[in-house]
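User: Good morning. I'm curious how iron/sulfur cluster would be positioned relative to this chain. Could you predict the structure with it bound?
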Amino acid sequence: MAKNNPGDILTGDWNPIIGCQKCSLGCRKCWYLDALFPWLKRLGKIPTDVQPSAAHVFENRMASAYLRSKNGIVGVCQHGDLFWDEVSDETIHRILDIIEETAATMRRVPNYVLWTKRPQRMANILCARYPQGTPNYLACAVSIENQALADERLTHLLRINTTRIAVLEPILGRVDLQAYLAELHWVIVGSETGGDDARTLDLEWVRHIRDQAVGAGLPFFIKQLNTDHGKKTIRELDGHHWDEFPDGFNK
Ligand code: SF4
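Assistant: Good morning! Here's the predicted structure, ligand included:
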């Protein structure tokens, strides 16, 4: 899927598996389960017998040839969560094998982003597979909604020697990142999307994150600040568009 929205950090995605289950505060208005899955099913792009709550592998997409057409910043398994416990270890390693095979054949290797709300399993698998650190084209993003989840999830993210991305989306409270900033590489913020019942965003939470990221010299990116409940996408904070990427990440 092309990512033409300026608020999206990705230029493309690769979805050889789909499926997930709501597991966290930020899942209340899951873009994939609530909107994309039913739409793709109506279009016939998902087999009729596949349920959203089951992990499904698209065998035809499990190939280097399928991934090779993606470039820039590529989200891996954006239609679900690769580290959901319904996805087998074997499937996760097959996906990592395909990324490695593809990268080995490319002159200009994209940034592949593994993105999860289940960083404990991500850390267990990646630390065992890459004890010296992940390949430099692989980055790890963890979604965070509040302080308690930041403390829980960033602890696992920091176990992985990789490019570490903290995605505070949907941000649901004030979050202090001071204990983690020195080991992060990118900080991203976004509000909840999805219309009138999207939860309220307090811009002071966003300013607090921005000030911490800027103070630590980290690139800072705002996906959307939907203070008007999604009637239009707002990305500007205090007169500035925050569109910063880590070195080597080009959209
Ligand atoms: S973890 Fe992500 S994909 Fe899974 S239910 Fe939550 S928001 Fe949706």
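The radius of gyration is 17 Å. The first helix runs from residue 31 to 42.
Let me know if you'd like a different ligand tried.
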